[in-house]
Amino acid sequence: MIYIRLILSYLKIGFFGFGGGYAMLALIQNEIVGPGWITDKMFTDIVAISQMTPGPIGINSATYIGYVAPAQASEHLASPLWGLIGSLLCTLVVVLPSFLLVRYTSHYIRRHRDSVVISGIMAGLKVVVVGLIASAALLLMNGENFGTDTPDIVKSVAIAIAALALNLFTKIHPIWIIVAAGTAGYAIY
Questions:
Q1: Is the dihedral of CA 86, 50, 141, 149 positive or negative?
Q2: Full pLDDT tens readout for the chain, 189 residues
Q3: Half-sphere exposure (CA, 13 Å, Cβ side) for 90?
Q4: Interacting residues of 113 by C-beta distance below 8 A, sequence separation 6+
Q5: Which residues neighbour 14 within 8 Å (Cβ) at sequence distance 6 or greater?
Q6: In 53-149, where does DSSP find H-type helix?
Q7: CB neighbours of 118 closer than 8 A, spacing ≥ 6?
């Protein structure tokens, strides 16, 4: 049944998705696109929309994928009610492992925060998270995001560099940069 498969996938994502949304993008893609619940294009769109909506990527994507996956799995589950059930299940299941881990380890970490072992574990996790975020950046550098023709790639990279420059060197609010980049993309393509 699709709900059991979604629960197992999002439990895995919740337990092994260290470092936040960007760090877990590769795992989410493997668990969700792999079985065919959504396409690569839909995954790219989910990531983009999750960036613009409040909340973490992992939770936003879980909510959306929980809504669309039942309809993709069976035409009998195509009603909004089944989508809402999937959304609720996926959202709760993806946060459950983090909640339990924090709940049951925080007192231990607080008590032993000066420990060499705990410091080493935290330092190691920082390096892993940086690597996972870098892999997410590489994962999103695909044809769905940048096009497949050289002129499209150049235009997409130009928009990305302009948005980065505006963010780094001006005091323009990031929302206006997102709106400008979207408008430029719409006008160009």
A1: positive
A2: 889 999 999 898 888 876 667 777 888 888 888 888 888 888 888 888 877 777 788 888 888 889 988 888 888 888 899 999 999 999 999 989 888 888 888 888 788 878 888 888 888 888 888 887 787 777 777 777 666 778 878 888 899 899 999 999 999 999 999 899 989 988 987
A3: 29
A4: none
A5: 58, 93, 94, 95, 96, 97, 98
A6: 57-73, 80-111, 116-139, 143-146
A7: 109, 112
